[in-house]
Amino acid sequence: MQMEALADALYIDALYGAGLTRPLEGDVARLAKLATGWAAPIVSVDVPSGLSGDHGKPLGEAVFKAELTVTFHRRKPAHGLATGRAFCGEIVVADIGLGAVPGDVTLVENTPALWAARFPWPAVDGHKFGRGRLKVISGDAWRTGAARLAARGGLRIGAGVVTLLSPPAALAVNAAHLEAVMLEPFEAEADLEAAAEAADAVVIGPAAGIGDVTVRNLFAIARTGAALVVDADALTSFRHDPELLFSALDRDDVLTPHAGEFERIFPGLLNEAPERIAAAREAARRAGAVVLLKGPDTVVAAPDGRAAISLNAVPWLATAGSGDVLAGFIGGLIAQGMDSFEAACAGAWIHAECGASFGPGLISEDLPGLAPAVLGRLYASRSA
Predict the structure, then answer these.
(1) Is the pLDDT of residue 160 over 90?
(2) What's the predicted TM-score (pTM) here?
């Protein structure tokens, strides 16, 4: 925030730090309530008083709401979680020379600084088969659009060859809508397993159908060793036996639930954990795979405890099919050889930037076509 924009009066809130664990009381609580009517800006130190630095939630009814929050060394969970950001305003992290601190948490902000150095740009002498082979499983004839969105997302993000695996009854409708995405039929699990043998990554779930067929299809793919991106119907198909899903996964696989799907696979965890970051971390540990918990503060967590939170989400992404494109972005990056945790982080960041570049009126069909401009900026920044 530019200091010229400040009013003549400026209030500094340095009453409590990030470790506060009880509600504001007495005169301080009354002051916080009065502050909601002040015209002059409030600058908070560390976190606004009355806000939990660890959970990002108000500790009681009285909380200061800052226009600017200055914190030190690194962001706290409250600075990344959507509920906390609403009270913090603009956030500035001041370096006070601590460097690496033993035992410091491994939560980081999801920006290109985290993964750009390992982004899978194609080599000058590269060819399509060297750029990764992604396969996406289509649903039945009347449920094909979501898988096509994922396939186009994977193609736009750079996968060299993308194939839509389609039940025979859905071949005609899929063929009518595809150009660069290839099409391959499958009938039985054995067909699917054989097709997935030639894949580096497979997306399963977008409109795949909920039930035993999708469960069997996932296990068929898992037997091939291809990395899995498990989304939507493929998650819900295991709602009665999440441990069965976990038994098929390894550290290279990625689960991409929204909050409702997360509750089905990790029942009660969002309420039991202190906040979304802790919930995603515990979910990744239980699943033995990367977990991307979607939302306005999307969290990506790995089984080894790494976690990253996205701060660039935009409301325009709250539209049907948006998550299917995200699954395709992630699958396409993994197919190109990117580490699954970093691929999930990069996919989430690029997805949000695509949404921001379009703004109001965005629909999911727009997203794959917006990726090249975002990728172009990333590519240009390599030598900046």
Answers:
(1) yes
(2) 0.89
